[in-house]
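sry for the spam today, last one i promise. struct tokens for design, 168 residues
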């Protein structure tokens, strides 16, 4: 069975009791935070290795590394073959800094996008801009409806029904 399926079955189990799932996620988030803290110290270095080698390098178990690779994959410059991943699959952690930051914001992972290591990568204004850009990208804006007796939005001074709304 592919490692990713094992991870997802375990982490998103509908049969496991809530207490053990909560414990799993609490431990995972702490380990994830620690890995990101190390990665963000050298953001331009592309870390490569097998899934097992990276798990050993960051001092986590194999399943935690699989979960980490699942989470970071959308932020990588070159995505890993996570669906078919096994212990000896070669993977890389070469991430796009802006995309990673935005994906952390989108996930609501404040323990990640507020890591102090980001301060050396982006100044406060840039972090705020990326945060706003990500939040705005999910906001749906409805155009204001123009009614027949409203002034035409083109600025002619005529009523909409006598101007651009004539043929509608």
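last one done:
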């Amino acid at each position: 069975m592919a490692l990713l399926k094992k991870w997802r079955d375990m982490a998103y189990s509908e049969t496991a009791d809530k207490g053990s799932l909560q414990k799993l996620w609490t431990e995972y988030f702490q380990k994830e935070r620690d890995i990101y803290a190390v990665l963000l110290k050298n953001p331009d270095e592309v870390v490569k290795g097998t899934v097992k080698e990276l798990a050993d390098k960051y001092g986590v178990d194999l399943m935690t590394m699989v979960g980490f690779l699942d989470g970071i994959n959308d932020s990588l410059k070159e995505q890993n073959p996570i669906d078919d991943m096994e212990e000896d699959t070669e993977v890389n952690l070469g991430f796009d800094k802006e995309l990673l930051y935005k994906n952390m914001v989108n996930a609501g992972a404040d323990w990640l996008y507020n890591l102090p290591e980001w301060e050396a990568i982006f100044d406060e204004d840039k972090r705020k801009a990326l945060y706003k850009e990500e939040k705005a990208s999910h906001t749906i804006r409805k155009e204001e409806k123009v009614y027949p007796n409203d002034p035409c939005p083109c600025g002619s001074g005529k009523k909409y029904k006598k101007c651009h709304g004539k043929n509608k």
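The mean pLDDT is 93. ok im logging off now
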